[in-house]
Amino acid sequence: MFVLVEMVDTVRIPPWQFERKLNDSIAEELNKKLANKVVYNVGLCICLFDITKLEDAYVFPGDGASHTKVHFRYVVFHPFLDEILIGKIKGCSPEGVHVSLGFFDDILIPPESLQQPAKFDEAEQVWVWEYETEEGAHDLYMDTGEEIRFRVVDESFVDTSPTGPSSAEATSSSEELPKKEAPYTLVGSISEPGLGLLSWWTS
């Protein structure tokens, strides 16, 4: 679920921080810049693990700050495909079951990846697994807040860095706000024995 990623960045330290230890200042600046941010094709950055190398620091004309090229390792949330995770149901919609890990919310289990047969209850706004037994079908509801075990089957990165207007048409239709896309999303599946709500398999 968590991996160590080697990164390189140039860190700017303002003059009023020169009295502090360089490593402390650099660690603070790196965490300010990266913590809780998604790096494209890398994952969700959590916190600095360690600094492996500091190159020479430079002060440029007109800027009293020091600029240091830093090699470091960062803890990143990036589960591998087929990894099994446990989260909580954040809500349900016709698109599927939305799951949260507490610190990461952009997880969707689409309808085709649920235990089958499944149906969406419009009145309750929940997905229901119609569990077949010898006595007939039992409706097992996927309620908000329930713990759920799922398998990661896909991931998607979207470059959300700002871009300028591409054409005159883009400026004329500026009243329509573009749909905000999540920079990093996971797709899960519970369509196999042992996956799904934890309460299904413990009772």
Automatic annotation (TrEMBL):
Residues 158-179 are annotated as: Disordered. One of its GO terms (molecular function) is DNA-directed RNA polymerase activity. This is DNA-directed RNA polymerase subunit. It is found in: Nucleus. Residues 83-201 form the RNA polymerase III subunit Rpc25 domain. Component of the RNA polymerase III complex consisting of 17 subunits: a ten-subunit horseshoe-shaped catalytic core composed of POLR3A/RPC1, POLR3B/RPC2, POLR1C/RPAC1, POLR1D/RPAC2, POLR3K/RPC10, POLR2E/RPABC1, POLR2F/RPABC2, POLR2H/RPABC3, POLR2K/RPABC4 and POLR2L/RPABC5; a mobile stalk composed of two subunits POLR3H/RPC8 and CRCP/RPC9, protruding from the core and functioning primarily in transcription initiation; and additional subunits homologous to general transcription factors of the RNA polymerase II machinery, POLR3C/RPC3-POLR3F/RPC6-POLR3G/RPC7 heterotrimer required for transcription initiation and POLR3D/RPC4-POLR3E/RPC5 heterodimer involved in both transcription initiation and termination. Residues 160-175 have a biased composition (Low complexity). DNA-dependent RNA polymerase catalyzes the transcription of DNA into RNA using the four ribonucleoside triphosphates as substrates. Specific peripheric component of RNA polymerase III (Pol III) which synthesizes small non-coding RNAs including 5S rRNA, snRNAs, tRNAs and miRNAs from at least 500 distinct genomic loci. With CRCP/RPC9 forms a mobile stalk that protrudes from Pol III core and functions primarily in transcription initiation. Pol III plays a key role in sensing and limiting infection by intracellular bacteria and DNA viruses. DNA-dependent RNA polymerase which catalyzes the transcription of DNA into RNA using the four ribonucleoside triphosphates as substrates. The keyword Transcription applies. Residues 9-64 form the RNA polymerase Rpb7-like N-terminal domain. GO terms for cellular component: RNA polymerase III complex. Belongs to the eukaryotic RPB7/RPC8 RNA polymerase subunit family. GO terms for biological process: defense response to virus; innate immune response; transcription initiation at RNA polymerase III promoter. InterPro entries: NA-bd_OB-fold, RNA_pol_III_Rbc25, RNA_pol_Rpb7-like_N_sf, RNAP_E/RPC8, Rpb7-like, Rpb7-like_N. It comes from Mustela putorius furo (European domestic ferret). Keywords: Antiviral defense, DNA-directed RNA polymerase, Immunity, Innate immunity, Nucleus, Transcription.
